Amino acid sequence: MNDFYTEQLIKKQTSTKDLVTKAVLAAFAIVSVLTVFIFPVGLLIPIVVIALVWFLMTRLDVEYEYLYINGDLDIDKIMHKSKRKRLFSANVKEVEILAPADSPQLNQYQRARVLDLSSCSKDGRKYALVVASNGQLTKLIFEPNDTIIEGISMLAPRKVVR
Asked: What DSSP string describes 57-73?
């Protein structure tokens, strides 16, 4: 068996935007509860608002799972450790280049659609994977481990920049 399999789980760091969103949602929930004292009839409003706030807060807890099997790279978004959604899928045959995110070889792909599926941490080792599918270029920013890079390099050595 010459199957090449690896998976990696990346936890997205909480950004300033996420903190502001959580603060606004919490304030919105508090204001909705305080409206009950002003309008006692409106008890349904805080219940709906708190349910909505809880739903949106759980969407901010994100992990990315990178799964590489025999030339196929799949990236899933896992929200609050309970809901999974496939965000990206590609085969090595569709890859244009895999290089560090700050590599000068990526300058010619400035017009590609960017998809950032990294942890958003400053110390992460970010790579850019440019994929051409259906005539459209997509630049994927992610943090692969050495096994994923080596797996892509084995099937397409000229497309990998280290």
From this structure: HHHT-EEEEEEEETTEE
